[in-house]
Design a protein that fits this description.
mainly alpha; 6 helices; about 60% helix; elongated
């Protein structure tokens, strides 16, 4: 699936017209229309604007797979986990396993 098909699918899931997406992304209708006609190709900056308007990470425009994006709390936890040695990780995993 190409990026334009993915954008169209995400747009349709929201029930938006091409004009509505262009407006929400701060682009002109003609810009998006030209992409679909093959008269121009989207820039990274324009794709970023479209992704933001669609409320998806940019990488999600390039795949149908749902992309997991860690929130700030999880990123901090991962960062701390990486600094632990194997003995500390095993101890924490033992505690976690008692709650399953």
């Amino acid at each position: 699936m190409d990026v334009l098909t993915r954008i169209a699918n995400l747009r349709e899931e929201k029930g938006w017209s091409l004009y509505q997406l262009a407006n929400k992304a701060g682009l002109t209708y003609k810009t998006l229309y030209n992409w679909y006609n093959g008269d121009s190709v989207p820039t990274v900056k324009a794709l970023e604007a479209v992704a933001e308007a669609l409320e998806v990470p940019l990488c999600e425009l390039f795949t149908t797979d749902k992309i997991f994006v860690a929130d700030e709390e999880l990123q901090e936890l991962i960062s701390k986990w990486k600094r632990l040695n194997s003995k500390q990780k095993n101890a924490i995993m033992s505690v976690i396993n008692t709650y399953q």
